[in-house]
Amino acid sequence: MRILLDTHLLIWTAAGKPPSKAIHYIENKANRLLFSSASIWEITIKSGLNRGDFSVDPVALYNGLLGARYEELAVTSRHVLLMRNLPMLHKDPFDRILIAQAASEGITFLTADKILAQYHGSVVFVG
């Protein structure tokens, strides 16, 4: 199974503190774990704004994810265009692009965000 992790899950997992419900998915060797370039973009912007929930070095995180065999999923125009068809459940554009990417690519989306968990499709809530 291909799994796209939301941005906070990436940060928590990299820090060795994923939610207990996420561990099964993350540690299962049969799963292919992905991260979005949008997550790296979000972390870069929000850590630069000194947001406490994004206090991670985006370069170190990026290199660590690649070293841990995560696959990067680039944002494409197809992903962006799909965002216009999403219900406006969540207003954060970074979260909306992650949902659009997962839907567009047929990837399971792992999230600890209750609002994101309301989207239809292969969204798994692990919060």
What does this structure look like?
This protein has about 130 residues and is of the alpha/beta class. It has a single domain (about 1-125), classed as 5'-nuclease (Rossmann fold, 3-Layer(aba) Sandwich). Helix content is about 45%, strand content about 15%. It contains 6 helices and 5 strands. The chain has helices at about 5-15, 20-25, 35-50, 60-65, 75-80, 95-105, and strands at about 1-5, 30-35, 70-75, 110, 125. Helix 3 runs antiparallel to helix 4 (about 60-65). The longest helix has 13 residues, at about 95-105. It is globular, with a radius of gyration of 13 Å. The two termini are about 20 Å apart.
Name the descriptors:
127 residues; alpha/beta; Rossmann fold; five-stranded parallel β-sheet; 6 helices; 5 strands
Write the layout of secondary structure elements.
Layout: E1 2-5, H1 7-14, H2 20-27, E2 32-36, H3 37-48, H4 58-67, E3 71-73, H5 77-82, H6 93-105, E4 108-111, E5 123-125
Parallel strand pairs: 1-2, 1-4, 2-3, 4-5
Helix pairs in contact: 3-4
Short description:
This protein is of the alpha/beta class and 127 residues long. The protein has helices at 7-14, 20-27, 37-48, 58-67, 77-82, 93-105; strands at 2-5, 32-36, 71-73, 108-111, 123-125.
Fourth CATH level, the homologous superfamily: 5'-nuclease
Number of domains: 1
Cα distance, first to last residue? 20 Å
Q: Quaternary status of these chains?
A: single chain
Tell me the strand order in the biggest sheet. Answer: 3-2-1-4-5
| Class by SSE composition | alpha/beta
Uncertain segments are: none
**C-alpha Rg (nearest Å):** 13 Å
* Major sheet characteristics: 5 strands, parallel
Q: What does the overall shape look like?
A: globular
Put simply, the count of helices is 6
What share of the residues lie within helices? 40-55%
Counting DSSP E segments of at least 2 residues, the number of strands comes to: 5
Please identify the top-level CATH class. Alpha Beta
Architecture (CATH level 2) name: 3-Layer(aba) Sandwich
- Write down the CATH topology: Rossmann fold
